[in-house]
Structures are given as C-alpha cells and as structure tokens.
Task: structure prediction
Amino acid sequence: MDGMWETLQTGGSSVRVRTAGLVPRPERVHLWPSVGEYPVYDAFLYHAMLADRHRNELFRDAVTRQAPGAAVLEIGCGPDLLWSLCAADAGADRVVAVESLPDSVREAEELALERAPGRVRVVAGLSTDVTLTDRADLCVAELVGCIGGSEGMARVIEDARRRLLRPGARVVPHRVRTLAAAVCLADLMPRGPGVPEALVPYVESVFDAVGGFFDLRMCVGGVGHEALRSTVDAVEDLRFNDGDCRQGGPLRLTVKRPGRVDGLLLWLDLQGRADGARLDTLAVRTSWLPVYVPFLWAEPVALGVGDVIDLRVTCDLSADGVHPDYRFAGEVRRTGGQRVDVTAESLYAGPEFRRSPLHAALFAAPEPTGPAAAAAPVAAARPR
Ligand SMILES: C[S@@+](CC[C@H](N)C(=O)[O-])C[C@H]1O[C@@H](n2cnc3c(N)ncnc32)[C@H](O)[C@@H]1O
Result:
C-alpha cells in the first residue's frame, strides 16, 4: 500500500493519517470525513452548500410553495440565511432563524439587517435550548446528515414540534430516507484508502470536537450506482410530516453482481415537500456524500449472485442525547447454505479506534523518535 502520512494532534496525543493526493478530486474515488454532526462548518463547507444546485432546488421549491402567509422557523440558518430569506421573499408573515455557531450567527444577523430588515429575526443558540414567544407553522431545517439522521434531526424536530411549532406545522424537508447496498471499497480504491491532504484538518477538528481518536464516519466521493453489488434497502425513513420517523430495523440485501464485498454504502433519497420531486444523492453530485460503513471482517469476502446479507440495524442516541449511533449485526447466507457473521458500526464518537479495516489502514501510531518510542501504541480514544 503506498501513500504519504501526516501527523495530527488531539488533546496531547498524536496519530498519523494516511493521505492520498492534495485535494479531493470529485471525479475520482476519494474519502471525506463526515463533519456536519460535530458541527465543524467553515466558509468552505458553507460555500459547498451554497453551490449545491440539486439540494438548493429541492429546498427552494418546498419553501417558496409553503412560506406565503406562514410564520416560519428556520433551524440552523448558517451565515447565509438561505431559507429564511427565501421564505421572506416568498411572502412569509414573519421569519425566525436559529443558529448555534457564534460566527455564523454574527454573519446571519448582518445579512438579515441588509436584506430583510424587520422581516427576519436571528436567534443565537441551539434550537433545543432556545425559547421563542410565538410558535411557527412552517419549519425549515437543513440538518440532514450524510446518514439522514446523523446530525440529530429526528430529535431536533421532535423537540421543535413540542415547544416551537403549532399543531399541524409543516416541516421541510418532508422525507429523508437513507438507503444502503453492499460495496467493496478495496476494489473502488485499489491503491488503498487515504484522506486528501486538504481534508486532514477536518479529521483533526472532528477528533477535537469529541475529545479523542475514534473510528470516525467516512464518506466516499466519486462513486455512483455502478459501485453497488447488491439490491437496495432502507436503513432509516424520516417522515417529518407523518409523525413517523423510523431509524433502524431489518436490512436485507441480495447480491446481484458477483465479486468481493467489504461494507455498505449509505446514501439519501430526499423529498422537499409531499408532492415534490425526489433527490437521489448517489445519482447526482451533492454536498451529501455517501457514507461507507466497513464490515468488521479482516478481508473482503467474495459473494455470488443470490447470496443474502441479512442485518438488523440499531440506532441508539449517543451520550449527548441528540446524535445517533448506528450498529449493524447479522449474517451472510450463501446460496450453498454457508453462513458468515457480519457486524459493522457507524458511531458519533468512540471509544473504538482502528477497529475496522478501513480505520486500521488509515491511521497509524506516530513515527518513533527514540528507543522508548519504538513500540508506541496508537493512543486510545477517550470515551465521551
Ligand atoms: C447543514 S448546515 C445548513 C446551513 C444552511 N441552512 C443551508 O442550508 O445552507 C446546518 C447548520 O445548522 C446549525 N445547527 C445544527 N443543529 C442546530 C440546532 N439544533 N440549532 C441551531 N442550529 C443548528 C449548524 O451550526 C449549521 O450552521
């Protein structure tokens, strides 16, 4: 396996991460850490969302059709106030925008003054902490994770319905399904996994945010439906307007293309409003990259057409009570009758580090610098 290594530090411990290239090349298969759930947004990431044509069309259509005359609440407006300004321009009665990151709040306040004075009010804080005097009848929340619920949206909307929204209020997006199929990352990245050098600071920021190293959620750019080896099933189905948010449950995938398998690819199928168009994030390029969840196998396993991967997905809230941990457990049943156990996980924080083959290949102990450091172990994660 070739590649370069870069050292990163968190809380006094260091680790090396394997890199591949300088910057992510959208047309090539590449890895990105999943960052939205921590949240470690910066100008570059906000710009990526601002430029995400498919995402923005979906939200713009849903907001402009439902905002006229409505009292609107945007949760997580970022610095650009996209959906609050869109609602105000569409004729909303009033708009309140809540944002938790102080820098983003400052920029949003300036923009509100400039673009919609007296029509958009920006409130600083987490939606789950703020109290508002009036309830809204339309809630726009782009808190959709690369696994739909990974940014805690189910919990945030449940709280908003209880305290911040009127009975029967509509939510945008209307529905977010997270789909899954079997893939082989080792075949998609035959030179071995690596994080583009420009993205290493994001890996460090995620470790800083949770206070230690752990098997962080990794996204894969540059892949499409052609990467899938199996049929597709849903891991999550968040129906924000039907009071029915299913997270986890049975997942059955049947191999339809023979070859090696080493994990799952998860991506989104979104709907902005009930009768609106759907967005398949594996079919077009969006800022929601598919997530790769490695099976905890030592090596990829060759599977044949008709072999079945039967999993149970559990989704429990992590220690912060908002962000979910996803766990997968079950078996592969080959057409010849043999069975192979399968487990996998995609957690918000530790404590496991270098447990999966992907993370064991991506991270290594710091380079020894003296005799005492010769057998330096990779620092263990601190559980939250
Ligand atoms: C994915 S960004 C979306 C930004 C913008 N609304 C857009 O669509 O481009 C999510 C934003 O929500 C903020 N955020 C996440 N959870 C929040 C919460 N519960 N309350 C307030 N802000 C939140 C984050 O800081 C971030 O700025």
Q: What stands out?
A: The longest strand covers residues 308-317. Residues 372-377, 379-384 have pLDDT under 50 and may be disordered.
